[in-house]
Amino acid sequence: MSRINADTQLERWIDQYQNLIYSICFKLTNDYFDAQDLTQETFLSAYKSLAFFDGRNERAWLCRIASRKCLDYLKHSSRRQIPTEEQLLITTPSPHPSFEQKMMEEVVRQELYDCCQKLKEPYRQVALDYFYHELEAGEIAARTGKNLKTVQTQIYRSKAMLRKLYRKEDLFDG
Question: CA-to-CA distance for 8 and 32, rounded, in angstroms?
Answer without folding.
Answer: 27
